[in-house]
Specification:
alpha+beta, single chain
Length: 169
């Protein structure tokens, strides 16, 4: 078996520039989990069907298990689950998943959270139908999705309230 040569890959992740050695066939998920130790994104189906590996790249949800890491070398900002909380405080979406019981066993939760996070970045007031569409690529076997949808609605409301309360510069 021939070993592919390793190359350095520089990724902008969670506000930092990080480097890891990868082969040309290394997926973004493998680079994040095994190269950088960011294990929040889960390795599920490895074919883009379950959504457990979802990360946010340049504001859009991306399936990291079917994306090559080298495609993001010196590229746009990648946000993983580890980068959602800020300054030691949970993001309202993380808190809402807890409060509503939307996080069950937790395996799918990171991917669901990242898909919802991408939705809220582009749409601060999504309808239930828009939430369902945004999460349609994320499979959860523990719940009927209602509590997850409620969590996204709660987070959206809290984010809007926070923005409305901020002083205008």
């Amino acid at each position: 078996m021939e070993t592919l040569p390793k190359t350095s890959c520089r990724l902008r992740v969670n506000g930092d520039v990080r480097e890891c050695l990868i082969s040309p066939s290394t997926t973004l998920l493998e680079a994040l989990r095994y190269g950088l130790g960011l294990t929040g994104s889960k390795q599920g189906c490895d074919k883009g069907d379950c959504g457990a590996c979802t990360v946010v790249v340049g504001g859009a949800a991306v399936l990291a298990c079917i994306s090559l890491a080298l495609a993001y070398h010196d590229g746009p900002e990648i946000t993983t689950l580890e980068g959602v909380a800020r300054h030691g405080r949970l993001h309202p979406l993380q808190d809402a998943l807890d409060v509503t019981g939307g996080a069950q066993c937790g395996f799918c939760t990171p991917g669901i959270l990242m898909s919802a996070y991408a939705l809220l970045l582009r749409n601060p007031d999504p309808t239930r139908q828009e939430i369902a569409h945004a999460l349609s690529g994320n499979l959860c076997r523990c719940t009927g999705y209602t509590k997850i949808y409620q969590a996204v609605e709660l987070a959206a409301r809290r984010l809007r309230e926070t923005r409305a309360a901020e002083p205008v510069a």
